[in-house]
Known about the structure:
heterodimer; A: alpha+beta; 2 domains; 11 helices; B: mainly alpha; two-stranded antiparallel sheet
Amino acid sequence: MRRTIVGVxxxxxxxxxxxxxxxxxxxxxxxxxxxxxxxARNVIKTFGTGSEAFRALDNVSxxxxxxxxxxxxxxxxxxxxxxxxxIAGFELPTSGDILLDGQPVAHxxxxxxxxxxxxxxxxxxxxxxxxxxxxxxxxxxxxxxxxIESQVTKMLKLVQMEPMRNRKTNQISGGQQQRVxxxxxxxxxxxxxxxxxxxxxxxxxxxKGMQIELKRLQMETGITFIFVTHxxxxxxxxxxxxxxxSKGKILQVGSPTEIYEHPADRFVAHFIGETNFxxxxxxxxxxxxxxxxxxxxxxxxxxxxxxxxxxxxVSMVVRPERIELAPLDESCQFAGTxxxxxxFGTDTTYHLDVENAGEMTVRMQNRWGHQSxxxxxxxxxxKVESDAxxxxxx
Amino acid sequence: xxxxSDTVTDALADNGRAQVAARKAASRTVWTRWLMLSPALxxxxxxxxxxxxxxxxxxxxxxxxxxxxxxxxIVPDAWINLFFEQDMFSDxxxxxxxxxxxxxxxxxxxxxxxxxxxxxxFPTAYFIATRSPKLRNLMLFLITIPFWTNLLIRTYSIIxxxxxxxxxxxxxxxLGIIDQPLQLMYTNIAISYGxxxxxxxxxxxxxxxxxxxxxxxxxxxxxxxxxxxFQVLRRLIIPLVxxxxxxxxxxxxxxxxxxxxxxxxxxxxxxxxxxxxxSQQFLTARNWPQGSALSLGLMALVMIALLIYAKxxxxxxxx
Lengths: 394, 319
């Protein structure tokens, strides 16, 4: 299911187009995918001065397309929230510019930008009812009463909160507050919706439900979503594209598949999913790829092994599920000893001590019967397809 | 077997003893509570309810010739006089318009004072609430400084500012804005200025208390949802700090409506207010029952106003 959404862009695009078509009478602003919604140009943000100065954003440039579910992913303090707040208008860039639909907006106050935010704390107005909260933005825009009324009803339907319309916000649960916050931000039909870790306060089950819900809302409304999270799984399941951030810099931008399968550097590889790092010597390279010699002496041909200098040590990553355990023979690139076995139901994770490569993790689906065969202390071979390997930039 | 029944009896006896002990402990707790409450209760009884009762009793008696009251016949004259006066010649009863005007003037003055204190206090409290915690404490401390100064001295210093040759007039004349000193003293403006100055801390402190609790992320959300600064103030900040506004307004309105010192000093006796009327009844007219009835009437007025407000607030909360 997950793969159909994130793994096959063409299908996701078709789904999106279809839903846009279905609801185009309502969402008149449905946009053509591909055009730029938000652009950050060489944005630098420094907090504090002198020796205490802290550079939260370090020359960040990124383009976010219309109708896209874009995720800013990174550990806390990486600058993702700062970038989001800058797009919303709560922070001024120290230098650089933010463009919304091609217009520079960095110096506009938040209430002059067609951008709405779903806050981490929801920030619902406690003195207003659910319906009044949702109507707030439209009222501030001076929309006629009848339009506000019908839009609020539509929004309540959209987030399935109709029965709660006259409740006060402290009379509904956390998950419901989340929905109201979403409806409130979507009601004025912004060009871009910003979501600042909106799911972090929910328990696991609600969070899973809301992930699917958010994706549905994004498709139905055709609004560009910029989602901030530190949860890599959340990012992978929902996003069209992900920007991985660390220490104020964007390290890699790409689809979930690209980010997961072809991490650009060690940080991205490490941050997203489980990873095995393998060192190798780049023996030879030509236009088709390169030949890599592993520490064990085995050689692998890798089609994307383009690295500046031949004869250098390079780091490669391989995901645990892309390694196969097999009886030890010449076709295996590595040999190792099973150190620990962790059973997960759908699959089993093996921790191995691998000769000449240190510790490695291998995950195998529980349909081969291997889990009843292998035991701690067994010596096994490891097979890695060359396209499962990713040579890192650094 | 015997051992078992012994154990059972013991257990029952234990249970009974425990119950008795629990009851004793409970009654001890109740007594301890009353004992702990007694200083407060005695204070309220002796210093609050007893004098009030004396005033009530006095208001129902005939005035003495020079002062005091004639004990102990109950007559409702003073209360009737609050609303009606006896015509000097015909003995017919007519509405006591003089009192009505004084009541109305005092209420208006107190309302104006409250509005003025709110107008000055609101931005002040907001400013303080948005500073760093260290600075906040210093500012709150500064706000309370006038409290330590004697009220009479504070009032006289206002006179120094407002009088014909006072600071304000001199500055305005030096600046060439006016040619002749403005008549500021002995006006209603002077009174409400003095009153709102004196009671400003009562407005600022509750306002600050509710603004300090204000979640500024809500204000950010307001800006995000296209609210301008003014709309954020009107639609978010004011409704959210309403408890503080109400508390501050009550705390200013009540002392302002019955104030005596400031109104007489700054008003110069030219405009009769509720407070001066009461004092006049006690000191000049030597009509203690009338003064007592007026005080209680003022109290009733304020309490009715508060009750109406409370009822409205409860009604709103329920709906």
